[in-house]
Structures are given as C-alpha cells and as structure tokens.
Amino acid sequence: MPRRRRSYDAVVRAVERALNAARVDHVFVGGIAVIAFGRRRTTEDVDVLVAFRGADVSGLLSELHRRGFRASEQDLRAALSEGEHCTIDDTRSEYRIDLSSAATASAQHALRYRVSVRSRGVALPIARPEHTVVMKLKFGSEQDIEDAMAIYLRQKDRMDLKLLGGFAARQGVLSALGSLKRRAKELEGAQR
Amino acid sequence: MRDAVSVKRDEYRLKALARSAIRDRHLSPEESLEIGFELIESARRLSDAAEASLVRRRR
After folding, report:
1. In chain A, how many domains are there?
2. What pTM did the predictor assign?
C-alpha cells in the first residue's frame, strides 16, 4: 500500500522539530506568516530563516534527513557562504522547504521580533506582521502587495507602528508603506 | 497600458481582499493557521482529483 503523503501542516511541524533538534535558531516567514496574520491563500513552500554556522551543517542535515527531507550539504553550505536560499525537497510530499541563512539585517529583524503561534501541539516561531508587510513591499510582486495589504488591514490596530515605520525606512520602502496605508484607508472606507 | 476591464477586475479583487481582512480581524493567528492549513489540503485534493480525471480521459 502506498504511503500516505504528508500534509502541509505536517511538513511545517516536521521542519520545526528538525530545526529544534539541530538546536538552530529560526523563524518561519513568507506564506505561513501571511496565512497566520493576513489572508487565506495556498502555498507550496515552507519559507524559513535559520541562524546557523558551518559547524551546525552536519547536525542540521542529519535531523532533516531523519524526517524525510532531501537536503544537500553543498546547498546548505552555499546558503551560508553566498547568502543564497537552499531548496529542500520533501520525500513524503510535494511541498518544498526554502531555507535561507539568517545573516542579513532583515533576517535578524525577523528573528528578533518573531512571535510564537501554536499549531496542533507545536509552537511555531513566525515573523511578526510588521516584518512581513515591509518585506512584501520590498519584494513588490502583485501577490506580495496583496499579501501586505491583507496583513495591514487585518492587523493595523495591533501593530507596532514605530517598529513598522523604522523597519520600512531601513529597507527603503517608506514611500511604498505610505501608499499602502492610503490605499488601505480608501478600501476600508469603501466597506462602510 | 492596462485595459479598463483588467483595472476593474483588480479593483474588485482588492475590495474582496479588504472585506475578508476586515471580517477576519477577530481571528487569532492560531485559528487562521488552522483554516489556512485546511485550505491548502483542500486545494491539493482538488488538484489530485483533476489530475486523476485527466488520466482517466486519456485511457
């Protein structure tokens, strides 16, 4: 009998367990953060920023392999030295893990301001809405802007506006944030 | 230059997105994740069913 494919949430939990077992600091970003704080949408990737060093690579590989993920040492080392993201395949589903080294200032921001969200018995560290809004504005595709709009509209009364503005300024998207706020106000007004 | 139809379509989609975001303000991130995970699995099942149907038709 063929083995049942694991679900997206099971993949996320398996990644969380692998990273905890390898004792590397990390934070989930991208689609998971959008789903938790913004809007319902599908995704096929699990985006995660990991603070790891060369000495962590073999432990990380071993914990990922144990849980059915196909990761290459070369890719992990390239993620570390060249700042590229490393795509890890899941042998038990069609989902992919996009792992990046948390070496940049923006990744450090995600780690510093992450929040813990429990899902089916596992606490998942997820980037705060303020972080995701700014990064989405920076990436700038149509889907990114819609993600940013959904998070901002849903979370604006709970967000730390100083944190949001400061991070936007450092990432060079202060003007895009201003446009997003104005558009959000119009859209909110149109709902009344 | 974008045509009037696509501008209208984008506007409609943004309004629907805003409606949904405002409606979901009371949801906790835990509840949102749960709903999102269910949506992802539903989409996968739908895609699998479509794939299976295509294979049957080719036979």
Report:
1. 2
2. 0.93
